[in-house]
Design goal:
two-stranded antiparallel ribbon, alpha+beta, 8 strands, 7 helices, 204 residues, single chain, endopeptidase fold (from Nostoc punctiforme)
């Protein structure tokens, strides 16, 4: 009995120390953090099949008057509350990645200013690399590249992805007909998810 009580006391002590240290607690997200999720859009499954990844949507966290928002391209480029962004993802699952090293106030300002150049631009269902229309991972990549000179994912060409699945082929035919732009530069959410310039600060 004495040994049992000792074990129970030891267990409570370990748990108490862990809680005191914040073990397992969700971190406070910072401006510039990159958040990824599995969206529930019509094209989400095709993106998963083509990239062999569960991540299909990405945006940048920015605080506005003390409230965290996500700056994203999911329609016209704009802000959505972080809580709404998370709840819109499949199962509420998401991952947050952060550039190695803290961003200075000047760097955050540059990032926000570059982001403003894309505000209200329409979503690009054709995944083109010009700035007339923008898709989610393109927005994140261009903001970091143009503001800070940092790559947050490897650029590829459309032909580099797995385009063999019938569901992927269907979307390609619907959008491009017989003129699929295999040489088009593309950056995928998965490229952001595995970028060596970023570290994962949270994933549920």
């Amino acid at each position: 009995m004495k040994n049992l009580l000792t074990m129970i006391f030891s267990l409570f002590l370990v748990v108490g120390i862990a809680n005191a240290n914040g073990a397992g607690a969700k971190p406070t997200f910072k401006d510039g953090d990159i958040i990824l999720q599995t969206s529930q859009s019509q094209q989400s499954e095709a993106i998963q099949l083509a990239t062999h990844s569960k991540w299909t949507h990405v945006g940048i966290i920015q605080n506005r008057n003390g409230t965290p928002y996500v700056y994203e391209a999911a329609g016209p480029v704009g802000y959505r509350k972080l809580s709404s962004f998370i709840s819109a993802g499949s199962g509420g699952k998401y991952m947050v990645r952060r550039l190695k090293g803290d961003l200075s106030t000047s760097q955050l300002s540059k990032l926000a200013n570059v982001g403003k150049t894309f505000a209200s631009k329409p979503y690009d269902i054709y995944f083109g690399w010009d700035d007339s229309r923008i898709y989610c991972s393109e927005l994140v990549w261009k903001m970091y590249s143009r503001a800070l000179g940092v790559s947050v994912g490897q650029r590829q060409q459309l032909k580099d992805f797995d385009l063999s699945h019938p569901k992927v082929q269907k979307i390609l035919r619907e959008r491009y007909g017989n003129n699929i732009p295999y040489e088009e530069t593309v950056v995928s959410p998965e490229a952001v998810a595995v970028s060596s310039n970023l570290v994962t600060v949270y994933q549920n």
